[in-house]
Every structure is written in structure tokens, then in C-alpha cells.
Inverse folding.
């Protein structure tokens, strides 16, 4: 088995791929029809997973929060492809130093409150994805890995 090799064995990493192909595991359903920059904290969403992923959701309901990775499918059609943005503070940042959807790969990642799991539907609070957004992955939020109390952000 690849992952069970002894630590002493030599390992040569294959060349990483330049492009990757992903498939949607499910889709977001909520009342938000178009992208917006703020106001997501009270948005309730249902993520409807394809039936073949239902068993993979088993036990997810034991967690209070999850991390959802999604594809911002409307962003590639945006007329602008900025390298930088000026935030409300008047400070300028590179697009990768913002939460903008206008990123090179249009991936969204959000840590959200888990409201419940019912079969192949996962209900969450605070997901910043509009209705119909494809979901690529979901995983439990683990404070020992995902929370960093010492983290800082620029002052606005």
C-alpha cells in the first residue's frame, strides 16, 4: 500500500499536475440569488449531496461546524479579472489577500455552523455561496487544526 510504506523507504514525489479536474458532490440551496460581498452570517443553506455520497456523510452530524469547499461558478464570467483590490479602508491588497470571488481558480472555502444532516442533505448557517453553487468538498472543523486564536488581520 502506498500510504503504508515504511518511513525509511525512499520516496520520490511524482511531478504534480498543472491542471486538476474536480466534480461537484452536491449543490447549495438557499434564498441568495446573486453574489454579494457581505451579509452571509444569517443565511441558512441546504447542501444537497448526490445520493452516492450519502454514506460518506455518516457521523458528520457529531460536529458543530464544518468546512465547505465550493466552486464559485459565476466568477469566471465576471468582466473584471483584477490583480488587486482596494478595500473599504482605502488600503490596496492583491486579490489573493482578499476574500473576493474574483480569484484565479474561483474556489470558495468557508467554515460554517452545522445545523443538521438529514440523509444526503446538510444544513448550515453562514455559507457565503449563492443558490445553485457546486460543492466540491465538506469536512469537519477541528479547532486544534483550524482555529488560530493568535491570527491577525489588517486594521480597517
Amino acid at each position: 500500500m502506498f500510504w503504508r510504506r515504511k518511513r525509511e523507504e525512499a520516496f520520490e514525489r511524482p511531478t504534480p499536475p498543472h491542471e486538476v479536474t474536480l466534480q461537484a458532490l452536491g449543490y447549495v440551496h438557499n434564498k441568495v440569488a446573486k453574489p454579494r460581498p457581505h451579509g452571509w452570517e444569517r443565511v441558512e443553506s441546504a447542501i444537497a449531496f448526490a445520493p452516492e455520497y450519502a454514506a460518506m456523510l455518516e457521523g458528520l452530524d457529531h460536529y458543530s461546524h464544518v468546512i465547505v469547499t465550493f466552486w464559485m461558478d459565476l466568477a469566471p464570467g465576471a468582466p473584471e479579472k483584477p490583480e488587486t483590490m482596494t478595500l473599504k479602508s482605502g488600503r490596496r491588497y492583491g486579490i489573493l489577500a482578499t476574500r473576493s470571488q474574483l480569484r484565479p481558480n474561483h474556489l470558495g472555502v468557508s467554515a460554517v455552523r452545522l445545523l443538521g444532516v438529514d440523509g444526503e442533505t446538510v444544513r448550515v448557517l453562514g455559507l457565503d455561496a449563492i443558490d445553485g453553487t457546486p460543492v466540491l468538498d465538506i469536512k469537519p472543523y477541528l479547532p486544534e487544526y483550524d482555529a488560530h486564536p493568535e491570527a491577525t488581520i489588517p486594521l480597517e
Observations:
- The chain has a mean pLDDT of 91.
- The chain has one domain: 20-143.
- Residues 20-143 form a domain with the Elongation Factor Tu (Ef-tu); domain 3 fold (CATH 2.40.30.70).
